[in-house]
Design brief:
154 residues, two-stranded antiparallel sheet, single chain, 30% strand, alpha+beta
């Protein structure tokens, strides 16, 4: 069984709605996140796009892991992630759904243990299953004097 793992990423506002995300890992570059117009210039992906990438990457990597577990080495996998934004009951924009299409270059019937991977690969995806179940989010706002000025839990 796995022990809990904790990691932290850091975000720093650069200008307007543009933030730089740092992963604190040697050799891993920071990324810039930005909101599209009219809020900002869209000079990087926004949070919804990063979440879509996380889901697609996790599922595709999980399929690759499963295939390799059965000594299969597929050609390059590709994925397309389509995310729908829709208003919630209060009219606030939310992610209404995510559709992932993973494309193999091989013919399924020619890949050993392919059926078993189709039954198992999603079990290896940390992100997708976590989102499907709902992830508890704890939010705290600290002011310049170090005072906790807001706390919420979902």
């Amino acid at each position: 069984m796995f022990e809990p793992t904790v990691f932290t990423v850091h975000l720093a506002q650069k200008q307007g709605y543009q933030f730089e995300a740092s992963f604190g890992q040697p050799g891993v570059p920071d990324i810039v996140l930005d909101e599209p117009g009219p809020l900002s210039a869209g000079e990087g992906p926004n949070a919804s796009q990063v979440l879509a990438v996380a889901v697609g990457n996790c599922l595709t990597a999980s399929l690759l892991f499963c295939l390799r577990k059965f000594q299969q080495e597929p050609a390059t996998l590709q994925a397309e992630v389509t995310t729908t934004l829709a208003p919630n009951e209060h009219g606030h924009q939310r992610i209404g759904g995510i559709e992932v299409v993973i494309r193999l270059q091989e013919i399924a019937g020619q890949v050993a243990n392919f059926g078993r991977c189709m039954q198992q690969f999603e079990n290896y995806c940390v992100v997708t299953d976590s989102i499907r179940r709902g992830i508890p989010v704890h939010v705290k706002v600290v002011d310049g004097a170090g005072n906790d000025v807001y706390a919420a839990e979902t």
